[in-house]
């Protein structure tokens, strides 16, 4: 079985111990991942710390050119990396670009795109104030060393979201990938680090103890984390001890509200992929669907046809459209939530029973006759299950959508865009989409409200978030 390595100071580094990474579609072990020690974590941070001044001192145009070379490497190795994503994360290979099945090839297309956009952005000096007596300029300076902790659902794309803007702004990075999807992440960094100066981009790998050692290192100057609220709270507590700034994307339980003038046939495919992209294992996916009584049965019928017609299987097979749940822990959570709903009197419209055989496969599942207060509605299921809740008035739907303590995304569905906008303005979420859901863009700020986290990524605002302002005040 192949053993993989971390990248530290431009070298490939093994550890004394390792652990197996497994294919969620088959259960087979597919490679050995190094288990970083606390000393190895410290060495990675030290390498990043030593490399940072020279990296930041490069002309801005030079860093941007190097990041375009990184994008070239991603493009050249997209097929290789997408196969590792499918084998390790489970999503199908799918197509390339936003109009195709959103699988691993789509993820690698996104990695290239989200690398080229920050590399193309200007980070100009801003004049905050000027009169006859003074001129005050705002310059953007890097933090230093950024610790990036990426999740298992979009392992490469979210890592790119964390790493590339940080590098663009003159920071150096230590990436800690999820222990469930380490190989694809370590291979991505191994490849792209070859066109960067040694120490600028480094990795460590292992379980939560490795992540804890990384964020507890006092030489880390900024933490970027995407993951669960429980882990985010632990990281925030550690960061507070060191007064380390953080950007947190802690997931959500996104609500979609269908208005009573929506056409079920026209919106069904958008609702379907809004909920079931990546088997529902997406932070900004529809997790609760609120529909008016007059549209309920028709929408359920349309979604049922789509759910039952999507081929499920090993993502390496060309005909596969949806794959497995990534890990056994998440599989158990999804199964338990559906069983609780069933025991509580909900109707399982389709799915709801895991097939026999290897792999973490769970069918696309629609659940009706369920309401706020049920665990499947109130907890983020993060899997291929969608509760569909009837509402009587838009006020009731808005109240339900806002009733939880998270607010990453939400959506409103109606042919009347102005009417939809008026409802959207009432929703407590970082992003509210109209007649679409989860459609992030590299130029549009993205972040959560309430307990879905703080800070933003993407675009000019995301680039500023990995810098600290310095005011230079000049008398005249």
Largest sheet: 7 strands, mixed
**CATH architecture type of the largest domain:** 3-Layer(aba) Sandwich
Named CATH topology of the largest domain: Aldehyde Dehydrogenase, Chain A, domain 1
CATH superfamily of the largest domain: Aldehyde Dehydrogenase, Chain A, domain 1
Number of strands: 22
Explain this structure to me?
It contains 15 helices and 22 strands. It has helices at residues 38-57, 60-76, 78-89, 104-120, 155-168, 182-192, 208-215, 229-242, 264-276, 293-309, 328-343, 375-378, 394-401, 417-424, 459-465, and strands spanning 6-8, 11-13, 18-22, 29-34, 126-130, 134-142, 145-149, 172-176, 201-203, 222-226, 246-249, 254-258, 286-292, 347-350, 365-368, 385-391, 406-407, 409-413, 431-434, 449-450, 453-454, 467-475. Strands 14-15-16-13-12-18-19 form a 7-stranded mixed β-sheet, sandwiched between helices. α3 (78-89) runs antiparallel to α6, α4 runs parallel beside α5 (155-168) and α9 (264-276) packs across α10 (293-309). The N and C termini lie far apart (68 Å).
Features:
476 residues; alpha/beta; Aldehyde Dehydrogenase, Chain A, domain 2; 39% helix; 4-(hydroxymethyl)benzenesulfonate dehydrogenase activity; Ald_DH_CS_CYS; Ald_DH_C; Ald_DH_CS_GLU
Would you kindly provide a brief summary of this structure?
The protein has helices spanning 38-57, 60-76, 78-89, 104-120, 155-168, 182-192, 208-215, 229-242, 264-276, 293-309, 328-343, 375-378, 394-401, 417-424, 459-465; strands at 6-8, 11-13, 18-22, 29-34, 126-130, 134-142, 145-149, 172-176, 201-203, 222-226, 246-249, 254-258, 286-292, 347-350, 365-368, 385-391, 406-407, 409-413, 431-434, 449-450, 453-454, 467-475. By secondary structure, the chain is α/β, with parallel strands linked by helices.
């Amino acid at each position: 079985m192949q053993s993989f390595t971390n990248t530290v100071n431009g070298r490939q580094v093994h550890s004394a111990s390792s652990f197996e990474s497994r294919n969620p579609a088959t259960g087979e072990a597919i490679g050995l991942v190094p288990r970083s020690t606390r000393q190895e974590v410290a060495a990675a941070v030290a390498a990043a710390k030593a490399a940072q001044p020279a990296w930041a001192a490069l002309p801005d145009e030079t860093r941007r050119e190097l990041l375009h070379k990184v994008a070239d490497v991603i493009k050249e190795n997209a097929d290789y990396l997408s196969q590792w994503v499918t084998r390790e994360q489970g999503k199908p290979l799918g197509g390339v670009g936003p109009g195709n099945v959103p699988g691993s090839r789509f993820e690698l297309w996104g990695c290239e795109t989200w690398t080229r956009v920050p590399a193309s952005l200007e980070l100009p000096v801003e004049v905050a104030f000027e009169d006859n007596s003074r001129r005050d300029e705002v310059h953007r300076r890097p933090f230093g060393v950024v610790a990036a902790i990426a999740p298992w659902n979009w392992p490469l794309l979210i890592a790119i979201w964390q790493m590339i803007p940080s590098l663009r702004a003159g920071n150096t990075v230590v990436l800690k990938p999820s222990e469930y999807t380490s190989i694809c992440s370590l291979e991505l960094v191994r490849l792209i680090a070859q066109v960067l100066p040694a120490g600028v981009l480094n990795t460590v790998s292992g379980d939560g103890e490795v992540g804890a050692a990384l964020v507890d290192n006092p030489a880390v100057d900024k933490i970027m984390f995407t993951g669960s609220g429980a882990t985010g709270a632990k990281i925030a507590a550690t960061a507070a001890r060191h007064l380390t700034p953080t950007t947190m994307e802690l997931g959500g339980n996104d609500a979609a509200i269908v208005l009573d003038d929506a056409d079920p046939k026209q919106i069904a495919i958008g609702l379907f992929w809004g909920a079931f992209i990546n088997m529902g294992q997406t932070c900004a996916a529809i997790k609760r669907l609120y529909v008016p009584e007059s549209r309920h049965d028709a929408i359920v019928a349309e979604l049922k046809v789509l759910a039952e017609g999507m081929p499920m299987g090993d993502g390496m097979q060309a005909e596969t459209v949806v794959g497995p749940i990534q890990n056994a822990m998440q599989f158990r959570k999804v199964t338990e939530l559906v069983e609780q709903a069933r025991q509580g009197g909900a109707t399982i419209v389709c799915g709801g029973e895991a097939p026999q055989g290897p792999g973490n496969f769970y069918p696309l599942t629609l659940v009706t006759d369920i309401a706020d207060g049920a665990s499947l509605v109130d907890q983020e299921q993060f899997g291929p299950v969608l509760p569909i809740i009837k509402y009587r008035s838009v006020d009731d739907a808005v109240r339900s959508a806002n009733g939880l303590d998270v607010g990453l995304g939400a959506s409103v569905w109606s042919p009347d865009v102005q009417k939809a906008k008026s409802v959207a303005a009432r929703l407590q979420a970082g992003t509210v989409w109209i007649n679409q859901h989860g459609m992030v863009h590299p130029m549009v700020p993205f972040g959560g409200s309430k307990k879905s986290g703080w800070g933003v990524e993407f675009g000019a605002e995301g680039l500023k978030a990995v810098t600290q302002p310095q005011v230079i005040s000049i008398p005249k």
